[in-house]
Design a protein that fits this description.
Layout: H1 5-14, H2 24-35, H3 41-51, H4 61-96, H5 106-115, H6 122-130, H7 142-150
Helix pairs in contact: 2-3, 4-7, 5-6
C-alpha cells in the first residue's frame, strides 16, 4: 500500500521518536494534540490491536495508512446514516408542514395530529411548539423540528 504525501506527513508527526513506528503512547499523545481530547487507554489499545497486523505492538506506515483509511470509510458510513436520518426527518417534517410556509405552525400541527388520532386545540399545539421554538417565532423550522425529534 502506497501512502500519500499527506498520510506520510501525518505519520511523521505521530512518529515522535523517528523510529518509523508509532507506539500506543505516541498515538494517544498525537490524538490529544490533534483533537484536543484524551483518548482512553482501552481505545488506544483497541486501535493498535486492530491495525497492528504484524503483531509487534507498533504501527508502521502501512498499518497506519490502513487504519486511517478504514476510519475514514467508517466515517463515510456514519455520514450515510446521517443522510438517511435527515431524509426521514425531512419526510416527516413535510407531513406536518401543510401550509406551504416551510415551517410547522400550531394549525398544521393540530391538523396532522388529528389525522393521527390525537385531538388537541391550537393553544395546546402552540405549547408543544414553544418547547422547541428556539427563535421564538411561534413555528418550528426544520432545524427546530430535527432538534425536537433527536431529543
Amino acid at each position: 500500500m502506497v501512502a500519500s504525501d499527506e498520510f506520510r506527513r501525518v505519520f511523521g508527526s505521530f512518529d515522535q521518536d523517528g523510529d518509523g513506528k508509532i507506539s500506543a503512547t505516541e498515538l494517544r499523545l498525537c490524538v490529544k494534540a490533534s483533537l484536543g481530547e484524551d483518548m482512553p487507554d482501552e481505545e488506544v489499545q483497541a486501535l493498535m490491536a486492530l491495525a497492528d497486523t504484524d503483531g509487534d505492538g507498533l504501527l508502521d506506515e502501512e498499518e497506519f495508512v490502513r487504519l486511517v483509511t478504514e476510519m475514514e470509510a467508517d466515517g463515510d458510513e456514519e455520514e450515510d446514516d446521517d443522510d438517511e436520518t435527515c431524509r426521514c426527518l425531512r419526510e416527516a417534517f413535510a407531513m406536518y408542514e401543510m401550509e406551504g410556509r416551510g415551517c410547522i405552525t400550531p394549525l398544521s400541527l393540530k391538523l396532522m395530529l388529528s389525522k393521527l388520532g390525537t385531538h388537541l386545540d391550537v393553544a395546546e399545539c402552540q405549547a408543544m411548539i414553544c418547547r422547541f421554538d428556539m427563535n421564538g417565532d411561534g413555528v418550528l423550522t426544520f432545524d427546530e423540528f430535527k432538534t425536537m425529534m433527536m431529543a
